[in-house]
Design brief:
This protein is an all-alpha fold and 124 residues long. It is built from five helices and no strands. The two termini are 29 Å apart.
Length: 124
């Protein structure tokens, strides 16, 4: 049954990632991968909030599988982040590549901490 929850969450997360990425990227006419950065940071925020909710007893392990492993797992994308960083470096946009790495890691970790803090404030 657990794998069905992960699949169901992934069925929502994957198209949501694609549509969000395209919508954000369309608004920013630049080589910087704003769409991927956005989905990764949002996914980290949701995962932090969800993890905090589970620890506080406000969400079940089934919800964690559905939304954490499934939705957030499909919404976020390390492979695209890596590829886009490589592409930037290969195309001579080394500064953008470095900023992409720093921004994605810093904003992602910050978003997880923010989500956990919000969960503690709500349910802790």
């Amino acid at each position: 049954m657990n794998w069905l929850l992960v699949i169901a969450g992934g069925m929502v997360g994957a198209p949501l990632r694609y549509l969000t990425d395209r919508a954000v990227q369309r608004r920013h006419d630049t080589v910087f991968p704003w769409g991927t950065l956005t989905v990764n940071v949002v996914g980290c925020l949701v995962l932090g909030l969800l993890s905090g909710a589970v620890v506080a007893g406000a969400a079940s392990s089934d919800v964690q599988l559905l939304l954490g492993a499934g939705l957030c797992g499909a919404l976020t994308t390390y492979s695209t982040f890596s590829y886009e960083t490589l592409r930037l470096a290969e195309e001579g946009a080394g500064l953008f590549a470095a900023v992409n790495v720093a921004a994605c890691v810093a904003a992602g970790v910050g978003a997880v901490f923010t989500g956990v803090a919000a969960a503690e404030a709500l349910w802790g």
